[in-house]
Amino acid sequence: MEPVVCEKLTKRYGSVVAVQDLDLTVRSGEVYGFLGPNGAGKTTTLRMLLGLVRPTGGRVLLHGRPPGDLTGVGAMIEGPAFYPYLSGRDNLRVLASYAGVDRRRIDVVLDLVDLSGRSRHKYATYSLGMKQRLGVAAALLKDPQLLILDEPTNGLDPAGMADMRALIRRLGAAGSTVLISSHLLGEVEQICDRVGIIAHGRLIEENTVAELRGGAGLRIQATPVEHAASWLRLVLGAPAVSVVDGALDVTVDPARSAEINESLVKAGVSVSELRPRERDLEQVFLELTGGESNGR
Ligand SMILES: Nc1ncnc2c1ncn2[C@@H]1O[C@H](COP(=O)(O)OP(=O)(O)OP(=O)(O)O)[C@@H](O)[C@H]1O
């Protein structure tokens, strides 16, 4: 059973379409980045996943069950709420007793989020990064199979962001399924297996970071370049080959690079460089989202 499946998920607020016909699947064990500019519809989607907002259309299943049944699901959405004058540990104790969670789990989650050393200090004295990590600890109390985090690095300084990234990587490496939303591409590309990009309420791309970055292609420096281009157009078809800034951009599975190299050499071309094409992900993101800035 996939941890998250959305089919044609739609939410309208009056005339505002917050989310439209969203198909999205999060697979077991992956860290999935749900990416989009502010106002794109991320929070609305996550709220529908958790049963906090009723969809106008379409459906959501978490582990095959409708939203509302949050067995095996932990979430941190729109900033955690804690008692400022209680310690981090005591805040977790309160939550654990509400949730019927064994107290021994508190030490485990404090350790996971790297807060054991400060757990007896008052919540009010925590940095924003520590507050966010305590929020993740709270979401982990019930040892969920699926963790949903809405903008977990929002407002954090670079060190706080790095700590949060490291935490999510640890959770992913331990086999948890994690869905995180973000408006910062750089933040998710380093930690996510797959990324879904949403703009104006629609999912416009869903792919692995490697695929997004590489497209499927090779960049080749060869001389004479026009001869190389003609040859590859014969072999691969004209649309697959273009000459950009004196080099060849070739749409082909990068796994075929040795074969392509050999073919060019046989055709009398000298190949000085042949590597998978890397796209500037920031550029891809801006193109896909219509060039909107990340700020409000
Ligand atoms: N309760 C509501 N009533 C009316 N419109 C809403 C409501 N909640 C969200 N919207 C609108 O729906 C759209 C999507 O908002 P949403 O908060 O889901 O975006 P987001 O991608 O999470 O952005 P952010 O990161 O800024 O929260 C926006 O145009 C927003 O103004």
Name the descriptors.
296 residues; alpha/beta; Rossmann fold; 6-stranded mixed beta sheet; elongated; binds adenosine-5'-triphosphate
Overall tally of structural domains: 2
Strand order of the largest sheet: 5-6-7-3-8-9
Helix content bin: 25-40%
Figure out the total of helices. 10
Task: Output the CATH homologous superfamily of the largest domain.
Answer: P-loop containing nucleotide triphosphate hydrolases
Mind summarizing the main beta sheet? 6 strands, mixed
Order of helix and strand elements from N to C terminus: EEEHEEHHHEHEHEEHEHEEHEH
Q: Globular, elongated, flat, extended or rod-shaped: what is the shape? A: elongated
- CATH class of the largest domain reads Alpha Beta
The CATH topology of the largest domain is what?
Rossmann fold
Task: Give the tally of β-strands.
Answer: 13
Walk me through the topology:
Elements (H helix, E strand, L loop, with lengths): L3 E10 L2 E11 L4 E5 L6 H8 L7 E6 L10 E4 L11 H12 L4 H9 L15 H13 L5 E5 L7 H16 L3 E6 L2 H5 L4 E6 L2 E7 H6 L2 E7 L1 H12 L4 E4 L2 E5 L5 H10 L3 E7 L4 H8 L8
Parallel strand pairs: 3-7, 3-8, 5-6, 6-7
Antiparallel strand pairs: 1-2, 1-4, 8-9, 10-12, 10-13, 11-12
Helix pairs in contact: 2-3, 3-4, 4-5
The chain binds adenosine-5'-triphosphate.
Describe this structure in words.
InterPro entries: AAA+_ATPase (IPR003593), ABC_transporter-like_ATP-bd (IPR003439), ABC_transporter-like_CS (IPR017871), P-loop_NTPase (IPR027417). Residues 4-225 form the ABC transporter domain. This is ABC transporter ATP-binding protein. Keywords: ATP-binding, Nucleotide-binding, Transport. Belongs to the ABC transporter superfamily. Helix content is 33%, strand content 28%. The chain is elongated. The strands form three sheets. It has a six-stranded mixed beta sheet, with helices on both faces. Helix 2 (88-99) crosses helix 3 (104-112) and helix 4 (128-140) packs parallel to helix 5 (158-173). It has helices at 42-49, 88-99, 104-112, 128-140, 158-173, 185-189, 209-214, 225-236, 257-266, 281-288, and strands at residues 4-13, 16-26, 31-35, 57-62, 73-76, 146-150, 177-182, 194-199, 202-208, 217-223, 241-244, 247-251, 270-276. It contains ten helices and 13 strands. The longest helix is centred in the middle third of the chain and has 16 residues, at 158-173. The chain is an alpha/beta fold and 296 residues long. The protein has two domains: 4-212, Rossmann fold (3-Layer(aba) Sandwich), CATH 3.40.50.300; 216-276, Alpha-Beta Plaits, CATH 3.30.70. The model has no long low-confidence stretch (mean pLDDT 89). Bound molecules: adenosine-5'-triphosphate (ATP). Adenosine-5'-triphosphate (ATP) binds at residues 13, 16, 18, 36, 38-44, 183.
